[in-house]
Design a protein that fits this description.
about 200 residues, about 40% helix, alpha/beta, 8 helices, Rossmann fold, single chain
Length: about 200
């Protein structure tokens, strides 16, 4: 930590990453949580793929099951947030209603909607799990972007373009946003006050 900084604190927030499979949500979520932990902040990842192996293993990908999946993710995130954690969720959450419902459960004061805006062609080219190939062959029904829609947020709090930004740059963008919106507070050491670089660059 910078010696001009006395403390970095947060009273909790939920960073809700939404975007298609292969957009980069899980990678960004892990890198963001790692970075927050280096500031000694409490942070955790809630990854759709991981939660679907346990808490949500009874759910598939119909509209109703996605709604239930995301309702549970939002409630778990809200619990972490109440305990002062920054919870970073990584779920497709393809419908505006899913994100609105999450915002309502979590509370709009602590909910940060981040659109991981990676075009379908790029996600499909990356295809890290080979799922797009399988979906195109008809082996997976209701696959988002192939047999099921993804409706992008109209007014996300933040949009990340992963095709021309590194993971670290995406993490920087989220952290700058969290600071500017007061979800992370930086207290300067006595006599050391100077506007942090990101505030000087981006304003308050
Ligand atoms: S969500 O739509 O309910 O938000 P969630 O993020 O939990 O989905 O899970 C998405 C992950 O499940 C994908 O990254 C992919 O690995 C896997 N998956 C399996 N089947 C599908 C499908 N039909 N549509 C989307 N993702 C699927």
């Amino acid at each position: 930590m910078d010696r001009a900084v006395e403390s970095i604190t947060s009273s909790g927030a939920v960073v809700w990453l939404t975007g298609m499979s292969g957009a980069g949500k899980s990678t960004i979520a892990r890198a963001l949580v790692h970075r927050l932990q280096t500031f000694a902040l409490r942070a955790t990842t809630l990854d759709g793929d991981v939660l679907r192996t346990g808490l949500n293993s009874d759910l598939g990908f119909s509209e109703a099951e996605r709604t239930e999946n995301l309702r549970r993710v939002a409630h778990v995130a809200a619990l972490f947030c109440k305990e002062g954690f920054i919870a970073v969720t990584a779920t497709i959450s393809p419908e505006p209603e899913h994100r609105q419902n999450a915002r309502r459960i979590i509370g709009s004061g602590t909910f940060v909607e981040v659109f991981v805006d990676t075009p379908l062609e790029v996600c499909e080219q990356r295809d890290p799990k080979g799922l797009y190939r399988r979906a195109r062959r008809g082996e997976i029904s209701q696959f988002t972007g192939v047999g099921s829609p993804y409706h992008a947020p109209a007014h996300p709090d933040l949009t990340l373009h992963t095709e021309n930004s590194s993971v670290e740059r995406c993490v920087d963008g989220i952290i700058e946003h969290l600071i500017c919106e007061g979800h992370i507070r930086i207290r300067p050491a006595a006599g050391q006050w100077r506007e942090p670089a990101y505030v000087r660059a981006h304003g308050r």
